[in-house]
Amino acid sequence: MSKGQTVLVVDPDTDFLKWAVRQLTASELSVLSAARADEALKIFTSESPDLVIADTHLEPYTGQELLTRIRERDSNAFVLLVSQYGTTQAVIEAMKLGAFDFLRKESLPFNFRAIVEATLKEQRATKAARASRPQLTVEQHQDSIVGQSEAMQQVFKLVGRVAHSDAPVMITGESGTGKELVARAIHHYSSRSAKGFVAINCAAIPEQLLESELFGHEKGAFTGATGQRIGRFEQSNGATLFLDEIGDMPLTLQGKILRVLQDGELSRVGGNDVVNTNVRIITATNKNLETEVSAKRFREDLFYRLNVVRVQLPPLRQRIEDIRLLAEYFVQRVSEEKHLPRLKLSEEAVRVLEGHLWPGNVRELENTIQRACVLATGDILMPKDIPLGFTAGEATPAGPIQKEEAIEALLRVAQSDPTIELLPWLEREFTVHAMRQTRGNQVQSAKLLGITRATLRKRLERFGITRELVVQ
Ligand SMILES: Nc1ncnc2c1ncn2[C@@H]1O[C@H](COP(=O)(O)OP(=O)(O)OP(=O)(O)O)[C@@H](O)[C@H]1O
Ligand SMILES: [Mg+2]
Protein backbone atom coordinates (compact mmCIF):
# COMPACT_ATOMS: atom_id res chain seq x y z
CA MET A 1 0.00 0.00 0.00
CA SER A 2 1.20 3.49 -0.84
CA LYS A 3 -0.88 4.81 2.05
CA GLY A 4 0.86 7.60 3.92
CA GLN A 5 3.51 8.24 1.28
CA THR A 6 3.97 11.84 0.15
CA VAL A 7 3.56 13.09 -3.39
CA LEU A 8 4.43 16.57 -4.65
CA VAL A 9 2.48 17.73 -7.71
CA VAL A 10 3.84 20.69 -9.68
CA ASP A 11 1.71 22.31 -12.34
CA PRO A 12 0.90 25.91 -13.31
CA ASP A 13 -2.69 24.95 -14.09
CA THR A 14 -4.69 25.31 -10.87
CA ASP A 15 -7.59 23.22 -12.17
CA PHE A 16 -5.25 20.36 -12.90
CA LEU A 17 -3.61 20.76 -9.49
CA LYS A 18 -6.96 20.60 -7.72
CA TRP A 19 -8.00 17.55 -9.71
CA ALA A 20 -4.70 15.76 -9.03
CA VAL A 21 -4.81 16.55 -5.29
CA ARG A 22 -8.36 15.17 -5.09
CA GLN A 23 -7.36 11.99 -6.91
CA LEU A 24 -4.34 11.34 -4.73
CA THR A 25 -6.03 12.22 -1.47
CA ALA A 26 -8.63 9.62 -2.39
CA SER A 27 -5.76 7.12 -2.55
CA GLU A 28 -4.92 8.11 1.04
CA LEU A 29 -1.67 9.77 0.08
CA SER A 30 -0.29 12.97 1.60
CA VAL A 31 -0.26 15.52 -1.16
CA LEU A 32 1.77 18.69 -1.54
CA SER A 33 1.38 21.04 -4.46
CA ALA A 34 3.18 23.91 -6.15
CA ALA A 35 2.51 26.02 -9.21
CA ARG A 36 6.09 27.11 -9.83
CA ALA A 37 9.40 25.25 -10.18
CA ASP A 38 11.34 27.30 -7.59
CA GLU A 39 8.56 26.85 -5.06
CA ALA A 40 8.56 23.09 -5.78
CA LEU A 41 12.30 22.83 -5.24
CA LYS A 42 11.97 24.48 -1.81
CA ILE A 43 9.20 22.07 -0.83
CA PHE A 44 11.24 19.14 -2.11
CA THR A 45 14.25 20.20 -0.02
CA SER A 46 12.27 20.63 3.18
CA GLU A 47 9.74 17.79 2.87
CA SER A 48 11.57 15.07 0.86
CA PRO A 49 8.43 13.69 -0.79
CA ASP A 50 8.52 10.10 -2.06
CA LEU A 51 7.45 11.12 -5.55
CA VAL A 52 7.36 14.33 -7.59
CA ILE A 53 4.97 14.72 -10.52
CA ALA A 54 5.91 17.79 -12.57
CA ASP A 55 4.69 19.36 -15.76
CA THR A 56 7.47 20.28 -18.24
CA HIS A 57 6.13 23.79 -18.84
CA LEU A 58 6.94 25.61 -15.62
CA GLU A 59 8.17 29.02 -14.53
CA PRO A 60 10.80 30.29 -13.86
CA TYR A 61 12.51 27.21 -15.28
CA THR A 62 11.31 24.04 -17.04
CA GLY A 63 10.22 20.75 -15.53
CA GLN A 64 13.37 19.18 -16.96
CA GLU A 65 15.47 21.74 -15.11
CA LEU A 66 13.50 21.07 -11.95
CA LEU A 67 14.13 17.35 -12.43
CA THR A 68 17.87 18.01 -12.77
CA ARG A 69 17.97 20.17 -9.65
CA ILE A 70 15.97 17.64 -7.65
CA ARG A 71 18.26 14.82 -8.68
CA GLU A 72 21.31 16.90 -7.82
CA ARG A 73 19.95 16.96 -4.29
CA ASP A 74 18.84 13.36 -4.26
CA SER A 75 19.99 11.15 -7.09
CA ASN A 76 17.46 8.50 -6.08
CA ALA A 77 14.47 10.83 -6.31
CA PHE A 78 11.46 9.54 -8.19
CA VAL A 79 10.13 12.10 -10.66
CA LEU A 80 7.39 11.69 -13.23
CA LEU A 81 7.42 14.34 -15.94
CA VAL A 82 4.12 15.21 -17.54
CA SER A 83 3.67 17.04 -20.82
CA GLN A 84 1.07 17.95 -23.34
CA TYR A 85 3.62 17.09 -26.03
CA GLY A 86 5.89 14.09 -26.20
CA THR A 87 8.50 14.89 -28.83
CA THR A 88 11.19 12.30 -29.31
CA GLN A 89 13.82 14.62 -27.95
CA ALA A 90 11.79 15.53 -24.88
CA VAL A 91 11.14 11.90 -24.00
CA ILE A 92 14.74 10.80 -24.51
CA GLU A 93 16.10 13.78 -22.58
CA ALA A 94 13.69 13.24 -19.71
CA MET A 95 14.69 9.60 -19.33
CA LYS A 96 18.35 10.50 -19.66
CA LEU A 97 18.02 13.12 -16.94
CA GLY A 98 16.65 10.36 -14.77
CA ALA A 99 12.89 10.78 -14.89
CA PHE A 100 11.12 7.62 -13.78
CA ASP A 101 8.69 8.02 -16.63
CA PHE A 102 7.37 10.55 -19.10
CA LEU A 103 3.58 10.82 -19.29
CA ARG A 104 1.32 12.43 -21.85
CA LYS A 105 -1.20 14.68 -20.16
CA GLU A 106 -4.09 13.58 -22.32
CA SER A 107 -3.84 10.02 -21.01
CA LEU A 108 -3.79 10.98 -17.32
CA PRO A 109 -7.53 11.13 -16.63
CA PHE A 110 -7.69 7.41 -17.37
CA ASN A 111 -4.77 6.03 -15.45
CA PHE A 112 -3.42 8.67 -13.06
CA ARG A 113 -4.03 6.84 -9.81
CA ALA A 114 -2.85 3.51 -11.19
CA ILE A 115 0.39 5.05 -12.46
CA VAL A 116 1.10 6.82 -9.17
CA GLU A 117 0.40 3.64 -7.19
CA ALA A 118 2.69 1.59 -9.45
CA THR A 119 5.46 4.19 -9.27
CA LEU A 120 5.28 4.41 -5.50
CA LYS A 121 5.42 0.65 -5.28
CA GLU A 122 8.58 0.69 -7.37
CA GLN A 123 9.93 3.53 -5.25
CA ARG A 124 9.47 1.53 -2.06
CA ALA A 125 11.03 -1.56 -3.60
CA THR A 126 14.17 0.21 -4.75
CA LYS A 127 14.48 2.88 -2.07
CA ALA A 128 17.47 1.35 -0.33
CA ALA A 129 19.19 -0.42 -3.15
CA ARG A 130 18.75 1.97 -5.98
CA ALA A 131 22.00 3.01 -7.63
CA SER A 132 22.17 6.59 -8.83
CA ARG A 133 22.06 7.27 -12.53
CA PRO A 134 24.88 9.42 -13.90
CA GLN A 135 23.88 12.88 -15.02
CA LEU A 136 24.90 13.91 -18.49
CA THR A 137 24.85 17.37 -19.91
CA VAL A 138 21.98 18.00 -22.26
CA GLU A 139 22.98 18.39 -25.85
CA GLN A 140 21.12 20.21 -28.56
CA HIS A 141 19.94 17.68 -31.04
CA GLN A 142 17.53 17.85 -33.92
CA ASP A 143 14.45 15.76 -33.42
CA SER A 144 15.11 13.26 -36.14
CA ILE A 145 13.43 10.06 -34.98
CA VAL A 146 9.76 10.64 -35.49
CA GLY A 147 7.06 8.76 -33.59
CA GLN A 148 4.23 9.49 -31.22
CA SER A 149 2.87 5.96 -31.02
CA GLU A 150 3.03 4.21 -27.68
CA ALA A 151 5.44 1.64 -29.15
CA MET A 152 7.89 4.29 -30.33
CA GLN A 153 7.62 6.28 -27.11
CA GLN A 154 8.72 3.11 -25.30
CA VAL A 155 11.67 2.86 -27.69
CA PHE A 156 12.69 6.47 -26.95
CA LYS A 157 12.50 5.83 -23.24
CA LEU A 158 14.70 2.80 -23.58
CA VAL A 159 17.21 4.77 -25.69
CA GLY A 160 17.36 7.40 -22.95
CA ARG A 161 17.80 4.80 -20.24
CA VAL A 162 20.57 2.79 -21.87
CA ALA A 163 22.50 5.50 -23.69
CA HIS A 164 24.79 6.40 -20.81
CA SER A 165 25.86 2.88 -19.96
CA ASP A 166 28.29 0.81 -21.96
CA ALA A 167 25.90 -2.13 -22.09
CA PRO A 168 25.68 -3.85 -25.45
CA VAL A 169 22.40 -3.13 -27.19
CA MET A 170 20.74 -5.39 -29.75
CA ILE A 171 18.24 -3.74 -32.08
CA THR A 172 15.81 -5.98 -33.89
CA GLY A 173 13.00 -5.30 -36.31
CA GLU A 174 11.96 -5.75 -39.90
CA SER A 175 13.86 -4.12 -42.71
CA GLY A 176 13.38 -0.36 -42.88
CA THR A 177 12.03 0.10 -39.35
CA GLY A 178 14.84 2.46 -38.32
CA LYS A 179 17.38 0.18 -36.62
CA GLU A 180 20.40 2.15 -37.77
CA LEU A 181 18.75 5.43 -36.84
CA VAL A 182 18.16 4.16 -33.31
CA ALA A 183 21.75 2.88 -33.06
CA ARG A 184 22.99 6.36 -33.98
CA ALA A 185 20.66 7.96 -31.44
CA ILE A 186 22.01 5.74 -28.65
CA HIS A 187 25.52 6.78 -29.59
CA HIS A 188 24.54 10.42 -29.86
CA TYR A 189 23.09 10.44 -26.36
CA SER A 190 25.97 8.44 -24.86
CA SER A 191 29.10 9.66 -23.14
CA ARG A 192 31.01 8.43 -26.20
CA SER A 193 29.29 10.88 -28.54
CA ALA A 194 32.43 12.98 -29.01
CA LYS A 195 34.19 9.86 -30.26
CA GLY A 196 33.23 8.17 -33.49
CA PHE A 197 30.35 5.95 -34.48
CA VAL A 198 31.88 3.20 -36.58
CA ALA A 199 29.37 1.18 -38.60
CA ILE A 200 30.02 -2.04 -40.44
CA ASN A 201 27.59 -4.16 -42.39
CA CYS A 202 28.54 -7.76 -41.67
CA ALA A 203 26.39 -9.12 -44.49
CA ALA A 204 27.96 -6.96 -47.18
CA ILE A 205 31.55 -8.15 -46.77
CA PRO A 206 32.87 -11.59 -47.83
CA GLU A 207 34.01 -13.75 -44.93
CA GLN A 208 37.76 -13.63 -45.69
CA LEU A 209 37.76 -9.85 -45.83
CA LEU A 210 35.47 -9.43 -42.85
CA GLU A 211 38.00 -10.86 -40.42
CA SER A 212 40.69 -8.38 -41.38
CA GLU A 213 38.12 -5.58 -41.62
CA LEU A 214 37.10 -6.22 -38.01
CA PHE A 215 40.38 -7.23 -36.42
CA GLY A 216 43.03 -5.86 -38.79
CA HIS A 217 46.06 -7.75 -40.06
CA GLU A 218 49.83 -7.70 -39.92
CA LYS A 219 52.01 -7.17 -42.95
CA GLY A 220 52.35 -10.44 -44.88
CA ALA A 221 49.47 -12.13 -43.03
CA PHE A 222 48.16 -13.36 -46.36
CA THR A 223 48.84 -12.83 -50.06
CA GLY A 224 48.17 -9.20 -50.81
CA ALA A 225 48.63 -7.99 -47.22
CA THR A 226 51.35 -5.52 -48.14
CA GLY A 227 51.10 -3.48 -44.98
CA GLN A 228 49.69 -3.54 -41.49
CA ARG A 229 46.04 -2.74 -41.15
CA ILE A 230 44.14 -1.54 -38.10
CA GLY A 231 40.72 -3.17 -37.85
CA ARG A 232 37.41 -1.63 -36.86
CA PHE A 233 37.49 -2.98 -33.30
CA GLU A 234 40.80 -1.26 -32.72
CA GLN A 235 39.73 1.93 -34.50
CA SER A 236 36.68 2.11 -32.30
CA ASN A 237 38.66 2.25 -29.06
CA GLY A 238 36.68 4.61 -26.82
CA ALA A 239 33.94 4.86 -29.43
CA THR A 240 30.81 2.96 -30.49
CA LEU A 241 30.97 0.08 -32.97
CA PHE A 242 27.75 -0.71 -34.80
CA LEU A 243 27.70 -4.28 -36.16
CA ASP A 244 24.82 -4.25 -38.61
CA GLU A 245 23.27 -7.55 -39.77
CA ILE A 246 25.02 -9.42 -36.96
CA GLY A 247 22.91 -12.48 -37.82
CA ASP A 248 25.10 -12.90 -40.89
CA MET A 249 28.34 -13.02 -38.92
CA PRO A 250 30.19 -16.23 -39.88
CA LEU A 251 30.54 -18.71 -37.01
CA THR A 252 34.31 -18.66 -37.35
CA LEU A 253 34.45 -14.99 -36.41
CA GLN A 254 31.89 -15.16 -33.62
CA GLY A 255 34.43 -16.60 -31.18
CA LYS A 256 36.84 -13.75 -31.81
CA ILE A 257 34.11 -11.20 -31.16
CA LEU A 258 33.25 -12.95 -27.92
CA ARG A 259 36.85 -12.56 -26.80
CA VAL A 260 36.78 -8.80 -27.40
CA LEU A 261 33.55 -8.54 -25.44
CA GLN A 262 34.77 -10.63 -22.53
CA ASP A 263 38.36 -9.48 -22.23
CA GLY A 264 38.61 -6.34 -24.36
CA GLU A 265 41.38 -8.12 -26.25
CA LEU A 266 42.09 -9.08 -29.84
CA SER A 267 44.91 -10.15 -32.11
CA ARG A 268 45.30 -8.93 -35.66
CA VAL A 269 45.18 -11.56 -38.40
CA GLY A 270 48.66 -13.07 -38.76
CA GLY A 271 49.88 -11.51 -35.53
CA ASN A 272 50.48 -12.70 -31.99
CA ASP A 273 50.42 -9.39 -30.15
CA VAL A 274 47.46 -8.84 -27.88
CA VAL A 275 45.78 -5.51 -28.52
CA ASN A 276 43.45 -3.96 -25.95
CA THR A 277 40.38 -2.07 -27.01
CA ASN A 278 37.38 -0.59 -25.26
CA VAL A 279 34.35 -0.49 -27.53
CA ARG A 280 30.64 -0.11 -26.93
CA ILE A 281 28.88 -2.57 -29.20
CA ILE A 282 25.50 -2.02 -30.76
CA THR A 283 24.17 -4.74 -33.04
CA ALA A 284 21.20 -4.94 -35.38
CA THR A 285 19.52 -7.71 -37.28
CA ASN A 286 16.25 -8.47 -39.01
CA LYS A 287 16.79 -12.18 -38.44
CA ASN A 288 15.35 -14.04 -35.51
CA LEU A 289 18.56 -14.71 -33.61
CA GLU A 290 16.89 -17.06 -31.14
CA THR A 291 16.11 -19.31 -34.12
CA GLU A 292 19.65 -18.94 -35.41
CA VAL A 293 20.93 -20.02 -32.00
CA SER A 294 18.72 -23.13 -31.92
CA ALA A 295 19.85 -23.97 -35.45
CA LYS A 296 23.46 -23.67 -34.20
CA ARG A 297 24.22 -20.97 -36.73
CA PHE A 298 24.81 -18.44 -33.99
CA ARG A 299 26.79 -19.02 -30.80
CA GLU A 300 24.59 -18.98 -27.77
CA ASP A 301 27.27 -17.45 -25.51
CA LEU A 302 27.79 -14.59 -27.96
CA PHE A 303 24.06 -14.07 -28.26
CA TYR A 304 23.71 -13.57 -24.49
CA ARG A 305 26.68 -11.21 -24.45
CA LEU A 306 25.17 -9.04 -27.18
CA ASN A 307 21.56 -9.24 -26.07
CA VAL A 308 21.99 -7.40 -22.78
CA VAL A 309 19.53 -4.70 -23.75
CA ARG A 310 17.02 -5.42 -26.50
CA VAL A 311 15.32 -2.71 -28.52
CA GLN A 312 12.54 -4.17 -30.63
CA LEU A 313 11.31 -1.85 -33.37
CA PRO A 314 7.69 -2.43 -34.34
CA PRO A 315 6.76 -2.62 -38.02
CA LEU A 316 5.08 0.50 -39.39
CA ARG A 317 1.74 -1.31 -39.89
CA GLN A 318 1.54 -1.67 -36.12
CA ARG A 319 1.89 2.08 -35.54
CA ILE A 320 -0.47 3.64 -38.04
CA GLU A 321 -0.71 6.77 -35.89
CA ASP A 322 2.91 7.55 -36.81
CA ILE A 323 2.30 7.51 -40.57
CA ARG A 324 0.94 11.05 -40.79
CA LEU A 325 3.80 12.48 -38.74
CA LEU A 326 6.44 10.60 -40.64
CA ALA A 327 4.93 11.57 -43.98
CA GLU A 328 4.83 15.24 -43.00
CA TYR A 329 8.40 15.04 -41.73
CA PHE A 330 9.60 13.50 -45.01
CA VAL A 331 7.66 16.01 -47.14
CA GLN A 332 9.32 18.82 -45.25
CA ARG A 333 12.77 17.25 -45.54
CA VAL A 334 12.48 16.50 -49.25
CA SER A 335 11.13 20.00 -49.99
CA GLU A 336 14.13 21.51 -48.22
CA GLU A 337 16.70 19.17 -49.72
CA LYS A 338 15.44 19.53 -53.25
CA HIS A 339 14.63 23.23 -52.90
CA LEU A 340 11.04 22.57 -53.88
CA PRO A 341 8.27 24.95 -52.94
CA ARG A 342 6.83 23.96 -49.56
CA LEU A 343 4.44 21.11 -50.37
CA LYS A 344 1.52 20.13 -48.18
CA LEU A 345 -0.12 16.77 -47.66
CA SER A 346 -3.86 16.59 -48.23
CA GLU A 347 -6.07 14.72 -45.78
CA GLU A 348 -7.07 12.33 -48.56
CA ALA A 349 -3.41 11.53 -49.23
CA VAL A 350 -2.82 10.84 -45.55
CA ARG A 351 -5.74 8.40 -45.57
CA VAL A 352 -4.27 6.60 -48.57
CA LEU A 353 -0.92 6.34 -46.80
CA GLU A 354 -2.57 5.07 -43.64
CA GLY A 355 -4.37 2.37 -45.62
CA HIS A 356 -1.20 0.86 -47.04
CA LEU A 357 0.49 -2.13 -45.39
CA TRP A 358 4.10 -0.87 -45.79
CA PRO A 359 6.02 -4.13 -46.11
CA GLY A 360 9.16 -2.01 -46.53
CA ASN A 361 8.29 0.01 -43.40
CA VAL A 362 9.59 3.55 -42.88
CA ARG A 363 12.10 3.29 -45.69
CA GLU A 364 9.29 2.48 -48.13
CA LEU A 365 7.29 5.44 -46.84
CA GLU A 366 10.29 7.70 -47.19
CA ASN A 367 10.88 6.58 -50.79
CA THR A 368 7.21 6.93 -51.63
CA ILE A 369 7.13 10.49 -50.32
CA GLN A 370 10.31 11.35 -52.19
CA ARG A 371 8.80 10.18 -55.46
CA ALA A 372 5.51 11.88 -54.69
CA CYS A 373 7.22 15.22 -54.05
CA VAL A 374 9.13 15.04 -57.28
CA LEU A 375 6.09 13.95 -59.29
CA ALA A 376 3.60 16.34 -57.72
CA THR A 377 2.10 18.90 -60.02
CA GLY A 378 0.47 21.27 -57.55
CA ASP A 379 1.57 22.50 -54.15
CA ILE A 380 -0.70 20.08 -52.31
CA LEU A 381 -0.02 16.35 -52.47
CA MET A 382 -3.17 14.53 -53.51
CA PRO A 383 -3.82 10.76 -53.61
CA LYS A 384 -3.09 10.75 -57.31
CA ASP A 385 0.43 12.00 -56.57
CA ILE A 386 1.20 9.09 -54.26
CA PRO A 387 2.79 6.28 -56.26
CA LEU A 388 1.54 3.37 -54.19
CA GLY A 389 1.67 -0.10 -55.53
CA PHE A 390 3.76 -3.05 -54.71
CA THR A 391 6.72 -1.11 -53.50
CA ALA A 392 8.70 -3.47 -51.37
CA GLY A 393 11.44 -1.79 -49.46
CA GLU A 394 13.81 -0.27 -51.97
CA ALA A 395 12.74 2.43 -54.37
CA THR A 396 10.94 0.84 -57.26
CA PRO A 397 9.43 2.86 -60.04
CA ALA A 398 5.67 2.99 -59.75
CA GLY A 399 4.25 1.00 -62.57
CA PRO A 400 3.53 -2.61 -63.43
CA ILE A 401 3.24 -4.96 -60.48
CA GLN A 402 6.66 -6.36 -59.62
CA LYS A 403 5.55 -9.86 -58.93
CA GLU A 404 8.56 -11.45 -57.28
CA GLU A 405 9.14 -8.46 -55.12
CA ALA A 406 5.52 -8.32 -54.09
CA ILE A 407 5.43 -11.97 -53.16
CA GLU A 408 8.66 -11.66 -51.23
CA ALA A 409 7.35 -8.67 -49.33
CA LEU A 410 4.12 -10.47 -48.52
CA LEU A 411 5.94 -13.54 -47.31
CA ARG A 412 8.12 -11.43 -45.07
CA VAL A 413 5.11 -9.75 -43.57
CA ALA A 414 3.25 -13.02 -43.13
CA GLN A 415 6.23 -14.68 -41.46
CA SER A 416 6.85 -11.89 -39.03
CA ASP A 417 3.25 -11.32 -38.12
CA PRO A 418 0.97 -14.35 -38.42
CA THR A 419 -2.06 -12.42 -37.24
CA ILE A 420 -2.06 -10.04 -40.16
CA GLU A 421 -4.84 -10.39 -42.69
CA LEU A 422 -3.23 -10.33 -46.06
CA LEU A 423 -6.22 -11.01 -48.24
CA PRO A 424 -8.07 -7.71 -47.91
CA TRP A 425 -4.84 -5.90 -48.50
CA LEU A 426 -4.07 -7.93 -51.62
CA GLU A 427 -7.59 -7.39 -52.87
CA ARG A 428 -7.21 -3.66 -52.43
CA GLU A 429 -3.79 -3.50 -54.07
CA PHE A 430 -4.97 -5.53 -57.09
CA THR A 431 -8.04 -3.36 -57.47
CA VAL A 432 -6.03 -0.15 -57.37
CA HIS A 433 -3.62 -1.63 -59.84
CA ALA A 434 -6.32 -2.68 -62.30
CA MET A 435 -7.96 0.74 -62.08
CA ARG A 436 -4.61 2.38 -62.74
CA GLN A 437 -3.87 0.16 -65.74
CA THR A 438 -7.21 1.04 -67.28
CA ARG A 439 -7.05 4.70 -66.29
CA GLY A 440 -10.13 4.35 -64.12
CA ASN A 441 -12.28 2.43 -66.57
CA GLN A 442 -14.57 0.25 -64.47
CA VAL A 443 -15.73 -2.10 -67.24
CA GLN A 444 -12.16 -2.91 -68.27
CA SER A 445 -10.96 -3.16 -64.67
CA ALA A 446 -13.69 -5.63 -63.76
CA LYS A 447 -12.69 -7.72 -66.77
CA LEU A 448 -9.01 -7.64 -65.80
CA LEU A 449 -9.86 -8.77 -62.30
CA GLY A 450 -12.33 -11.40 -63.47
CA ILE A 451 -15.23 -9.97 -61.46
CA THR A 452 -18.51 -8.31 -62.35
CA ARG A 453 -18.83 -4.56 -62.50
CA ALA A 454 -21.19 -4.61 -59.53
CA THR A 455 -18.62 -6.47 -57.42
CA LEU A 456 -15.96 -4.00 -58.50
CA ARG A 457 -18.17 -1.09 -57.47
CA LYS A 458 -18.70 -2.62 -54.05
CA ARG A 459 -14.99 -3.11 -53.66
CA LEU A 460 -14.18 0.45 -54.70
CA GLU A 461 -16.59 1.69 -52.10
CA ARG A 462 -15.36 -0.64 -49.39
CA PHE A 463 -11.73 0.32 -49.86
CA GLY A 464 -12.41 3.99 -50.53
CA ILE A 465 -10.78 3.82 -53.94
CA THR A 466 -11.74 6.86 -55.96
CA ARG A 467 -11.02 7.80 -59.56
CA GLU A 468 -8.84 10.57 -58.26
CA LEU A 469 -6.67 8.08 -56.42
CA VAL A 470 -5.89 6.02 -59.47
CA VAL A 471 -5.86 8.37 -62.41
CA GLN A 472 -2.64 10.35 -62.61
N1 LIG B 1 11.13 6.92 -36.79
C1 LIG B 1 11.73 7.43 -37.86
N2 LIG B 1 11.76 8.76 -38.04
C2 LIG B 1 12.36 9.29 -39.14
N3 LIG B 1 12.96 8.57 -40.07
C3 LIG B 1 12.99 7.25 -39.96
C4 LIG B 1 12.38 6.61 -38.83
N4 LIG B 1 12.57 5.28 -38.95
C5 LIG B 1 13.27 5.09 -40.08
N5 LIG B 1 13.53 6.26 -40.70
C6 LIG B 1 14.23 6.43 -41.99
O1 LIG B 1 13.94 5.28 -42.78
C7 LIG B 1 15.10 4.81 -43.44
C8 LIG B 1 15.40 3.40 -42.98
O2 LIG B 1 15.87 3.40 -41.65
P1 LIG B 1 17.11 2.49 -41.18
O3 LIG B 1 18.16 2.45 -42.24
O4 LIG B 1 17.51 2.94 -39.84
O5 LIG B 1 16.34 1.10 -41.12
P2 LIG B 1 16.90 -0.36 -40.80
O6 LIG B 1 15.98 -0.94 -39.82
O7 LIG B 1 18.35 -0.27 -40.46
O8 LIG B 1 16.69 -1.10 -42.17
P3 LIG B 1 17.48 -2.40 -42.77
O9 LIG B 1 17.09 -3.57 -41.92
O10 LIG B 1 16.92 -2.51 -44.15
O11 LIG B 1 18.93 -2.07 -42.71
C9 LIG B 1 16.22 5.77 -43.12
O12 LIG B 1 16.33 6.72 -44.15
C10 LIG B 1 15.75 6.43 -41.84
O13 LIG B 1 16.27 7.73 -41.74
MG1 LIG C 1 20.02 -1.05 -41.44
Helix and strand layout, with pairings?
Elements: E1 6-10, H1 14-26, E2 30-34, H2 37-47, E3 51-55, H3 63-73, E4 79-83, H4 88-96, E5 101-104, H5 108-126, H6 150-162, E6 169-172, H7 179-188, E7 197-201, H8 207-215, H9 232-235, E8 240-244, H10 251-263, E9 265-266, E10 275-276, E11 280-285, H11 289-294, H12 300-306, E12 309-312, H13 323-337, E13 344-345, H14 347-355, H15 361-375, E14 380-381, H16 403-416, H17 422-437, H18 442-449, H19 453-463, H20 467-470
Parallel strand pairs: 1-2, 1-3, 3-4, 4-5, 6-11, 6-12, 7-8, 8-11, 13-14
Antiparallel strand pairs: 9-10
The structure holds adenosine-5'-triphosphate (ATP) and magnesium ion.
Summarize the structure.
With 472 residues, the protein is α/β, with parallel strands linked by helices. It is built from 20 helices and 14 strands. The protein has three domains: 6-126, 3-Layer(aba) Sandwich (Rossmann fold), CATH 3.40.50.2300; 165-312, P-loop containing nucleotide triphosphate hydrolases (Rossmann fold), CATH 3.40.50.300; 317-470, Orthogonal Bundle (Helicase, Ruva Protein, domain 3).
